C-alpha cells in the first residue's frame, strides 16, 4: 500500500459492525476514510511503510461507527436554546412562574416564546389563555407543547393574530373553544399557523449563529451526522455554514412538501449536495400526536381530556392531496418521509407509498415513515415486504409509556413502539431523537431501546418483549440511519473505504450494566478522521 496514512488509532476496543471483521484493535485513516482495520501489529506493519502523520491512543476506549440521528429539527433545536425551556416541568404553576419571570426582563410588547410543556405531567386538562394573561398581560405569549403539535397562547397573541370566535376552523387543525365559542388559547395542529404567521421570523444570520453554537453540543454526545427537517431559512443557514467550512456535522436535509414545486423548477433531485450537506427525502406531516390526542386512529382515544368519546384524532392533510403531492415528489426524484403516529395514519402512509412503488417505480428511492408509534399487526409486516423504512425514536416509547396506556388502553399500547417486532419482520429500521421533542443525546436513545425504561425508573420495562440488544440499538443509530439517507455505502460500518466517522466511549456499553449507558462519557468524536470533540 502506497497511500500516505494521516492517522493511526490504536489501543482501542473496536466494534466494527462489519460482518467480515467484527472486532479490531487499531485503524488506519487517510483522506478522511478508513483504509485498514485490524490488530495492532497489522496496522503497525502498514504504518512502517507509510509513516502516519499522527496517532491517537484511545487508552482502551470502545470505538463504534459514528452515531447518526435519523430525525432531528436541528435549526429549531438550536434556536429554542434561547427560549423558555419547559420540558419536564411537572407543575403548571411552575411553568407560569417561568413565564412571569421572563416577562419581567423582556421589553413590553416583545414576544415570549417557549417549548416543551406537557399537560400530561400536570393532569389531563388543557391550559388556557387566561392563565397566561395573568402572568404576562403586556407580552404576546406563544408556548409550543413538547410534541410540537399544540400551541398555547394568551389573549394578546390571539388579538395580534386576528383570531376571534368568528375565525373559521383550519383544515387539518382545531381552534379549541369554550362553551361560549371563544378561543381558549390552545391551537391544535395546522391551526397553530394562525399565530405563527404573525411571530417575527429569525433571520438567516440568527439561525446560522444558533446552529454554529449548537454543533459542539451535538458532537459532545457522540453525533457525527443527523437528518434534519428544515424550512427554507434553516436550509440556507446550513448552506452558509458549509460554504464557510464551519459545518462539522454531516447533515441530510429533509425539506417539507412546500418545497416540491421549487425543487421541480430547479431540477434538483434527492442526493444533491456533497458528503457534508445534501438533500434527502421530502417530509409530509400526515397526522398529529398521542400526547395531544390528535394522532389519526382507527378507534377513539380512551379517557379523552375534552370528554369526547368519538375523538379519533385528525389528518393534517387531505388523503387525496397527500397522494397527489407524494406522486409529485417521487416523479421529481425524491423519496418521501411521512409523519405517522396513529394506526390509521400509518395505514394511509403505507398505502400511498406502496401505490407509488407500483405506479412510479419508486422502489429505487428510499421511502420512510417517521415515528411509527402504533400500527396494526397486518400493517407491521408491510414494512419489510415493501422495504419501507421505519424511522423511530426509542425515547418516545419510554416518555410516552403512561400516556399510551391512558389514551390507547393496554391492548393498543401493547402493539405500540414495536422495535423488536419490526426488526424480526425484516423491516429497515432507523433510530433518531426527534429533538427538540426529546434529548438529542443518542446514548439516551440506545438506553431506551435496550431497557424500555426511563433513566432512574424503578419499574418493569414497557412491554419487555420489545427490548433490543445493545448492538441492535447502536445499529439503528449507525447503519440504519445511514441506510435511511441512502448513504450506507459510506457510513454505518468500520471497514476499508468507509468514511472515518467514529464515536469513542469511555466504557464498553456492550457489557456494562444497562443503567450506565446514558451516562457513559464520550471521549472522542471524529468526522472524516478529524476530532470534532476530544476529552481523553
TrEMBL record:
Domain of life: Bacteria
Gene3D superfamilies, A to Z: 3.10.310.70, Metal-dependent hydrolases (3.20.20.140), Urease, subunit C, domain 1 (2.30.40.10)
Segments traversing the membrane: none
InterPro entries in the record: Amidohydro_3, Metal-dep_hydrolase_composite, Metal_Hydrolase, YtcJ-like
Molecular-function GO terms, alphabetical: hydrolase activity, acting on carbon-nitrogen (but not peptide) bonds
Coiled coil: none
Every Amidohydrolase domain range: 55-533
UniProt name for this protein: Amidohydrolase
Species: Candidatus Chlorohelix allophototropha
Lineage: Bacteria, Bacillati, Chloroflexota, Chloroflexia, Candidatus Chloroheliales
